[in-house]
């Protein structure tokens, strides 16, 4: 009776294992996305809840082509304006791959800055910067620059959120025939001038 030597058995098992792990080189194996962007959408939702649970006096200052107007707004109007920031959340799975992250420490402001730029220069969100307090890693500010078209008008939008205090949505509207309008919107609930 023949016996199988342990060495032969080991080589046989190794050959089988190596053969079963081979993959077709023409197939792409999906790679899970493990990178983490700062969850700006979650932060904005928390800020909306922060305002919603308190009895802040909320007002909006609008400056259109130099003409200034100020008015009190409701919490629902506040939420409608804040939704502009929620719509620009690049940490969502479908958008994350379109941007790259750079991190640097800004000694002049005592902040860590997370800067997001598009991989494709035609992306609507052209830049996002999240400033975190160096000692706590809490958000101090969020800046978002977006460029998009609305009909025949090019809109350049600069959004700025100041944590627990206020935000701005500023727009420049331009058309091919030379029309230009600026609109500055400042929404305040807890910011002292």
Offer a few descriptive terms:
single chain, 193 residues, alpha+beta, disordered N terminus
Summarize the structure.
With 193 residues, the chain is α+β, with helices and mostly antiparallel strands. It has one domain. The protein is built from four helices and nine strands.
Question: How would you describe what is shown here?
Answer:
The chain has 193 residues and is an alpha+beta fold. The chain has one domain. 23% of the residues lie in helices and 40% in strands. The protein has 4 helices and 9 strands. The protein has a 9-stranded antiparallel beta sheet with strand order 2-1-9-8-7-6-5-4-3, with helices on one face. Strand 4 and strand 5 form a beta hairpin. Helix 2 packs antiparallel against helix 3. It is globular.
Count of DSSP E strands?
Answer: 9
Order of helices and strands: HHEEHHEEEEEEE
Assembly context of the chains: single chain
Which stretches are low in confidence, meaning pLDDT under 50 for 5 or more residues running? 1-34
Order of strands across the widest beta sheet? Answer: 2-1-9-8-7-6-5-4-3
Number of helices: 4
Question: In what range is the share of β-strand residues?
Answer: 35-45%
Q: How many domains make up the 3D coordinates?
A: 1
Sheet of most strands: 9 strands, antiparallel
Give the helices and strands, then pairings:
Layout: H1 6-20, H2 40-52, E1 59-64, E2 67-72, H3 75-86, H4 93-96, E3 99-106, E4 111-118, E5 125-133, E6 139-150, E7 153-162, E8 166-175, E9 180-188
Antiparallel strand pairs: 1-2, 1-9, 3-4, 4-5, 5-6, 6-7, 7-8, 8-9
Helix pairs in contact: 2-3
């Amino acid at each position: 009776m023949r016996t199988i030597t342990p060495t032969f058995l080991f080589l046989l098992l190794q050959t089988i294992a190596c053969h079963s792990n081979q993959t077709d080189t023409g197939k792409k194996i999906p790679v899970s996305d493990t990178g983490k962007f700062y969850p700006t959408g979650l932060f904005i939702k928390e800020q909306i809840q922060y305002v919603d649970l308190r009895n802040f006096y909320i007002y909006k200052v609008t400056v259109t082509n130099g003409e200034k107007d100020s008015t009190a707004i409701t919490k629902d109007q506040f939420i409608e304006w804040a939704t502009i920031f929620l719509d620009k959340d690049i940490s969502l799975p479908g958008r994350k791959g379109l941007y790259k992250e750079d991190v640097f420490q800004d000694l002049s402001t005592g902040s860590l800055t997370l800067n997001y730029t598009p991989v494709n220069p035609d992306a609507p969100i052209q830049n996002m910067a999240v400033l975190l307090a160096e000692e706590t890693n809490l958000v101090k500010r969020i800046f978002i620059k977006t460029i998009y078209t609305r009909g025949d008008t090019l809109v350049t939008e600069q959004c700025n959120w100041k944590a627990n205090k206020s935000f701005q949505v500023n727009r420049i509207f331009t058309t091919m025939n030379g029309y230009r309008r600026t609109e500055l919107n400042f929404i305040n609930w807890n910011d002292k001038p």
